[in-house]
Amino acid sequence: MKRNIYLMYAIAFLQGMVFYGPVATLYRQSQGVSVLQIMIIEGISFMLCILLELPWGIVADRIGYKSTMVFCCILYFVSKVVFWRASGFSWFLTERVMISVVLAGLSGVDTSVLYLSCEGKKSQKIFGIYNSLQMAGLLVAAMVFSLFVQEDYRLSGLLTVFSYGFAALLSLGLKEVKKGEKGIKSEKNSGQLRELLTQTLKNRELLLFLVAAAFLTETHQTITVFLGQLQYEKCGLNHEAIGYIYIVATLLGGCGIYSLRLTQKIGVKGSVLFFGGAGVLSCMLLMLTRSGVASVSGILLLRFSNSLFDPFRVEMQNRQVHTGNRATALSVHEMIMNAIGAGTNLLFGVLARRSLNLAWVLGAGLCGASVVLFLCWYQKAGIRIAMHQKKEIV
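Predicted structure:
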């Protein structure tokens, strides 16, 4: 259904327009929230995502993916209203709790809508465009911030409210893509859920992939969204410079459209080596430098590699789902990854409070571990998936 794909593209663009993105950490600090408190909020958010992932996956498979998208987009909009007016730890925690509900709800559903709408054909390319449009939204927001908003944090919050409101309206135009029976809905089918959980937890190849993906994803998220701003401030960069750096980072985020081309050129194994290796190099550069230029280069490299990695990750996850209850299966995946993310976020926060260098050491270690885990996964399952992709391309 092309209509669904185009609507999802538009929603991704609008929800990418987070006008306070370049100063997300500084925004919270200006409203009385410390870096450690930010990491605590993030940790709580991850724990809630873990608790809500599976129930939301079941609900999504039962009520349909359109209804889930509509509800989550509306709640996303409300959370941005709360963020706009928030002040102090409790309000920002409330906002993040709402986002946890949204993220758990959208987890696996947005990609399932895209995957089923294109019937699995050229899905990695579509995921790449989807991610790139989110980056395009961020780019527009970053340009507006740098040129007009700058130190007016409240205005950046209000503009974000408008973009998310439009996204919620567009979600009403989606068409349902889930066919057949409505997911797990009775005691008779509860055995399917237990079986799905058991299969996932016993699937060592899949677990290797999920842990490796979590290490890379959370390192990127924590450094580029939160800790990177502290590094910029430490190097003496002003708000205008941070805004322009954010624009460049957002442009690099659009590289996701080349993810499939990279995988086709260097293969699945070469891709995972590149993703993990770039993360290690980025964190080591941040650890060894006091230069603003070098610091920016390290964070931009991390951004670039993750932009290429994310469509690859989503594609590989979907290829390892072999059940009609796709949203539930993907929710199980996200539950595992969020459990890891909750731990890494708190650890990043504790280390960053002592020294940013300790946080960079942790990031390098996690990215290095991801390389090892990805290689183990490739030996067991990646080769099979790579061969399947090759046949599909031919």
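Summary: The two ends are 24 Å apart (CA to CA).
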